[in-house]
Amino acid sequence: MEIENITLTQNPVLMKFKLFGFLCCIYLFSAVIAFSQTARKTVVSISTDKFLINEKLTYAGQIWNGHTIEGLLMNSRMVQGIFDDLNPETVSNWKYPDTKKWDSDRNTDEFVANMPIWKSYGLLSFTINLQGGSPFGYSQGQPWINSPYTSEGELKPEYFKRLEKILDKADEIGMVPIVGLFYFGQDDHLANEKAVVNAVSNAVDWILEKGYTNVLIEVNNECNVRYDHEILQPERVHELIELVKSKQKDGRRLLVSTSYGGGTIPKENVVQASDFMLLHGNGVSDPDEIVKMVEKTRNVASYKPMPILFNEDDHFNFDQPKNNFTAAVSAYASWGYFDYRMKDEGFEEGYQSVPVDWGINSERKKGFFELLKEITGY
């Protein structure tokens, strides 16, 4: 018996089957691409007062001078990682000594190149602020314009393209960035409170949509220092903390807090709303006072067991047995190094002064990283 040769064009059932298979392949291919874009390697979480990365306690089993380091999150203030200056009258202040011009992409690329080196010393975290920090270390006026938001709180793509490079690298190598959303002196580029809320929503949505699971949020750097908008000030900043907590993607949200100026103990509203506490040691020259700050924070009425981090402290003395770093460790608090280029110092000094040399090549930087390596056992 002869079997009739039937083509697809002559058999609509076969045509539909073929088309269905083709569409399934397209769907699966698209799903694989989407998964590859959002699948992440690093997950940060908190268990009572301890940090975990990928469900393992940080610095697991490490003890230094009788103090447990397990669960801490040592960090450094690296807030200028996506810095730019949109004011043509001030941008020349940040020119590199070799090229005599400012280059925001070079700044980010050199930041990323140094991240594995920092990690090799035991640095698991760094603070990066979307509005940077003072490129002079400290300053009164801020004529430069460094903000990733429009006046209405929409995102500027060029800033977030640079941020993506940093967050991708952090995820790849197992680091936990503390992403700050606002810096005093730059928040005034947002038109009103609605724009501030819009900026928070847009930035947090962007981080969640990108699938990052290694990011902590600091709503604003030092909420009690010179913010124009009331919602960024101590009495109301908890509203923005709650806003961050309310944003979810696939059942997950970002862990969030905010910080105060040096020596200040967080207020009850912020302690109640936060997932962890951020303290600053600026102006606190006596290491014993660092211990007292931790104790006072734990005694705030609304405190429940949660991690306590110093993520800004410009005191050094790393060659001395007692300094602010070791004092924080003795009180079971994480500590963060803050360094800037002081008067008449060279390009290699500091991590906040722009342009930044992101290497470990000054005596202060070396002192911090060597002590960090000793304490963390890396």
TrEMBL record:
Domain of life: Bacteria
Organism this protein belongs to: Algoriphagus locisalis
Protein name: Cellulase (Glycosyl hydrolase family 5)
UniProt-listed InterPro entries: GH
